[in-house]
């Protein structure tokens, strides 16, 4: 899994920052997006990510700087040959926004879209690889955070040891990795537990929508390998942050600290901050949480164990 | 008046071309836009044009690549301090598209918007400086072209001759330019007709939405100083152009020729054409109309007399 920030600007784009969108690559070569501000499809063109590999979009809230890129991106995914179903999650209103835009513009998609409007907090998606939980945050409009928990993964095959046993790579490697013991032609039994290393623990990525500091931010971020939290303002503007339903860099760091997260990536910066000023937001945050960075657009952030 | 192409790509953005939008600067320092594909506000950030100076937006048709940038651009105009009313013109459906997007995203504008949905062809706007006429084109969806006729403007003041008469610059220069004769303190009369050169003829700019070649394109483009016509395909793909309601570069040139336009600027190029391939579209067009160019984005095109 890898995070790509497609936009880190709050409210409107500026010359070197776009409005909010984040891509999260999956272990199977597909990727998900979290929010889709205007111009997100343009930003994707500057990454290795291909729209046809996008399978799910999670919307945190319906403010324009988080959703106005949706209809165009859906249209381009079709033009580029996407035929697989696309699943969208977000607050109520998402369906009307999308269906109205697609109907009036006579946009015909060559794939089905499934829209889930979130009605209750809790687990909203799970499959063999991952579980996603949503909870309400504290903003001027209904806003959600998402906690993505990867399941425990099989350990790494010990190829060197297998070679010593005289077992060349082949389908049996897959059987061993899947937990099956294998009997060789000479009668020897190779046990899966000997061939495969320790299971890899699942990683946790928490991506929050716009919010004031709140208990659900801590809850969703509990023990996260990476917590993505907005930091619209420096703490000198804490009153303004509160008035507009946002957080300061210091507050984002306090949430990361309380949650026991491993790493904090801050985003959603007011357009008043130049790239240089973002370094000051980092300094502010690191007073209470050392591993805090202002996210840089179009740079991959791997999710460490 | 000056044209800026903010996007020249058909259907979807590619790395070096955005979807359709054109800015037309006015003599009073304001500007108008024609269409507003996703990312148009981002393109404006790369020009000297300021969103607060935008007074009118003319939409040719409601396909997404011509309108999905509207809600975000309107929102940013407000955030950037725009308080003057904004007038929008376009086909029926424009109001619902905009009002739904603004309502669901809870976007509150600090200025009034006035939306005129075009109901009949003909003159749809005029003031002291300009007259705008709309007519239906031939596309898969209701699509309009706009003919902007500048009124005759006062000639240039002959400052050298006025200095010879001993008349220094001052408010009387304005009176003379406005057509009034002026009596000096010594009793001499300076006649406006002597002080002001020939009136400048108004210029004509015609901007057409997506269309197959059609009679109304010729009618709107009659004698235009600049005709902006789509050229989605090279003529080798004339069948495809017809099927999708578009024109080829050769057809655009034929329209410019029939209309007796002075200059043709082509836009709305299929994403299949590289920048180099656009030179071939120009070669094709110039076979029948010499002054034809493929519009380049983010470059000002003055409107010659």
UniProtKB/TrEMBL annotation, chains A, B:
<feature type="binding site">
    <location>
        <position position="139"/>
    </location>
    <ligand>
        <name>Zn(2+) 1</name>
    </ligand>
</feature>
<comment type="similarity">
    <text>Belongs to the RNase Z family.</text>
</comment>
<feature type="binding site">
    <location>
        <position position="63"/>
    </location>
    <ligand>
        <name>Zn(2+) 1</name>
    </ligand>
</feature>
<protein>
    <recommendedName>
        <fullName>Ribonuclease Z</fullName>
        <ecNumber>3.1.26.11</ecNumber>
    </recommendedName>
</protein>
<keyword id="KW-0819">tRNA processing</keyword>
<keyword id="KW-0479">Metal-binding</keyword>
<dbReference type="Pfam" id="PF23023">
    <property type="entry name" value="Anti-Pycsar_Apyc1"/>
</dbReference>
<keyword id="KW-0540">Nuclease</keyword>
<feature type="binding site">
    <location>
        <position position="268"/>
    </location>
    <ligand>
        <name>Zn(2+) 2</name>
    </ligand>
</feature>
<dbReference type="GO" id="GO:0008270">
    <property type="term" value="F:zinc ion binding"/>
</dbReference>
<comment type="subunit">
    <text>Homodimer.</text>
</comment>
<dbReference type="GO" id="GO:0042781">
    <property type="term" value="F:3'-tRNA processing endoribonuclease activity"/>
</dbReference>
<keyword id="KW-0378">Hydrolase</keyword>
<feature type="binding site">
    <location>
        <position position="210"/>
    </location>
    <ligand>
        <name>Zn(2+) 2</name>
    </ligand>
</feature>
<feature type="binding site">
    <location>
        <position position="66"/>
    </location>
    <ligand>
        <name>Zn(2+) 2</name>
    </ligand>
</feature>
<dbReference type="InterPro" id="IPR036866">
    <property type="entry name" value="RibonucZ/Hydroxyglut_hydro"/>
</dbReference>
<feature type="active site" description="Proton acceptor">
    <location>
        <position position="65"/>
    </location>
</feature>
<dbReference type="InterPro" id="IPR013471">
    <property type="entry name" value="RNase_Z/BN"/>
</dbReference>
<feature type="binding site">
    <location>
        <position position="61"/>
    </location>
    <ligand>
        <name>Zn(2+) 1</name>
    </ligand>
</feature>
<feature type="binding site">
    <location>
        <position position="65"/>
    </location>
    <ligand>
        <name>Zn(2+) 2</name>
    </ligand>
</feature>
<feature type="binding site">
    <location>
        <position position="210"/>
    </location>
    <ligand>
        <name>Zn(2+) 1</name>
    </ligand>
</feature>
<dbReference type="GO" id="GO:0042802">
    <property type="term" value="F:identical protein binding"/>
</dbReference>
<keyword id="KW-0255">Endonuclease</keyword>
<keyword id="KW-0862">Zinc</keyword>
<comment type="function">
    <text>Zinc phosphodiesterase, which displays some tRNA 3'-processing endonuclease activity. Probably involved in tRNA maturation, by removing a 3'-trailer from precursor tRNA.</text>
</comment>
